[in-house]
Amino acid sequence: MVELLKQGQYQPLDIVDQILSIYAGTRGHLDNVERDKVAAWESGFLTFVRDQTPEVRSRLEETKALDDETERLLEAAIAEYKRQVQGVKQPEPSLAGSN
User: Which DSSP state fits 12?
Assistant: First the structure.
């Protein structure tokens, strides 16, 4: 979390970007990221959200709340970013046994 909270001098993060980063960190999404790679992960994730899932940022800016729908969108964005970073397509969950 310390690495995640660091910001460059005279380069504060936008509040929405801070929320996105802190959410990912406090929910354990960076637990497997090496400490010296946290800043790169965060930068890449924020770029990903801006470029590929702008609805997540827009919703946070508009509602100023982390409601269930926003959290669902954010979790989906994090999962997709992690898939892209890993470079492998994760298998879809099996529907076997669900009735």
Answer: P
Distance CA 45, CA 37 (A): 12
CATH number at residue 68: 1.20.150.20
Domain count, the chain: 1
Distance of CA 95 to the CA centre of its chain: 26
pLDDT tens readout for residues 8-66: 788 888 999 999 999 999 999 999 999 999 999 999 999 999 999 999 999 999 998 99
Rounded to two decimals, the pTM is: 0.81
In a domain, 37, yes or no: yes
Range of the domain at 65: 12-86
